[in-house]
Structures are given as structure tokens and as C-alpha cells.
Amino acid sequence: MSAPYLRDLVADTSYEAPAAHGLRERVEAYAARRSTAEDHGDVLGPLVVPDTELPLVQGTVAALGADEIDVVVAVTGGAGAIEPAVRWATRQERLRLVGLTAAVRDLDDLARGAHRVVAMVGQLEAEGLLEDVDVQVGLPLHARTEGSLRWQHALDTLASQDLRLVLRTGGADPEEVPSAETLAGAVGDALDREVAFSCRGDLAHAVAWREPDTGRVRHGFLNVLLATRASLDGGDVGAVAERLALTASERVVTELGVIGESSLESARRWFTGVGSEDVDASLADLRALSLLGPTD
Fold this sequence. Notes:
Blueprint: E1 10-12, H1 23-36, E2 44-50, H2 54-64, E3 69-74, H3 82-91, E4 95-103, H4 110-126, E5 134-138, H5 150-160, E6 164-168, H6 180-192, E7 197-200, E8 209-210, E9 217-218, H7 221-232, H8 237-244, H9 249-259, H10 261-267, E10 271-276, H11 279-288
Parallel strand pairs: 1-2, 1-10, 2-3, 3-4, 4-5, 5-6, 6-7, 7-10
Antiparallel strand pairs: 8-9
Helix pairs in contact: 1-2, 4-5, 6-7, 6-8, 7-8, 7-9, 7-10
């Protein structure tokens, strides 16, 4: 068994990898990890699939002879694409819909876009289609600019309906990587409103690291956990950003030990996990930090 603060931490978003494998390979790898994991099985979260692949997932799982799998559906369109994705996913055998992610597309009016997502989610909940389904909504961090409240207003809308937030921590374009200060501010905004959040995008590694050429910090998921705890403990943006920018593995592990498992598990109530484009790399990092047991 893993430490409680590591359980259900790493979801599989390998479809977003720059050189992503096909659906069959991704489902096969996911199922293999779930069936063979001993020291890290409880660290693994669900498989995330884009709604465009839903028609193929059930047949792929059946062809591989895999057991029922937990899936999170990533809606690739706007609010109007949520309903067909949910209806399709809930009709599929061998799939258990445990999560739904959607992004606000109306960047000129984030609050209105958030309202449209909330309205659609509310309709589906009323029909009983989202029972025990974790709904998360992405708000673009580049919209969180000084002097503008539109990002905060959209977040208020999510908070009013107890929906969760997705923060993108990177992507194919290096410019998609938010600064430590920007990410720290967004974490604080979410926690101030008691909105739980997850992170996705270029987040396969446990500890932050710097690009050799640019010196730019690329984020690590254990840093986000430390930052969440620091924010919950009253740290300001600077203190939270400092945790996000830690690149020394020894320092990160030491801080985890100082904080203690109970306080880290409490932080996981709000930082619900990460989407990793390379789950094997994420697990290897945790093992290298002696946070998972050895392999056979």
C-alpha cells in the first residue's frame, strides 16, 4: 500500500503525449499496469480518453479481454458537446464513467462560458447521468491577468455549483507553461473559494525541473502538493510559488517528511491529482524518490 497522500494521484492522459500511441496500445498499457501493479496500484487513477475516441473504447477493451475500466471523458468541444459525450459513455459496457472534463471555450466572456457548462452539467445531473461522476472544468490561466476579474468570476460560477477546476500546467507550446507565480495565484484563488482542482499538461515528473537552454521551470506534481499545503497553511503567493519552483529532489522529499502524511492527505482533498502523459515515468520518479516500493 502506498502512502495515503499518493493514492489515486496519477491519471493516465497519455493521449495528450506529443507522440501518443494509438488507442489500443494505450488501453493495453493501462490495463496491464492495473493488473500487475503491486507497490503502486493504488497510486493509479483512471484512464482519460477524448470524446472523439469513445465509439472505439468499448470494442478495444473487449478485444483485449480486459476487465471493466474506469474512464474520464475529456470533452474536446464546447458546452454543447458535453451531453452527447456523457450519453455515449454511460451506454458503453466495460466502461465506468468516473469523471468528465470540459474547458470553457468563450474566452471573451469566461463567466458566461462557465455558466453554459454549469447549465449543461446541471441538466445531466437532474437526469441522473452524472451520479458519482467527478466533473472538472478548465479555465485558461492566461486569462488570469492583472486588473481583470473575469477569471475569478468564472471560478465563482464553478464554486457556486461545487464543480472542480482543471489547471493546465503545460502543453505542446512552451508558452503554455505558467510561471510559478501564476500557478500559485490560481491555486490560492481556488482554495479561497473551496474549489478542488487537478492539474494536467506536461506534468509527468514528480519534481520540478529547469530547461537547460532557457532556465524555465517545468512543473512537478509533488511540488503542486507542497504548494497546496503551503496555501492552505496561509502562505502568500510568494511562499506558494517557492514550493512550485523547488527543483532539488532531496529538498522536496524532506519537506514532504516534515509536513507529514496526515497533513499531506488533507491537502489531497483539494489537490485531487494530476493527468500524466507518461505514467511509467511518473511511477519511476516516485520510486527513485523512495516513495514507492521496489519492483520485482
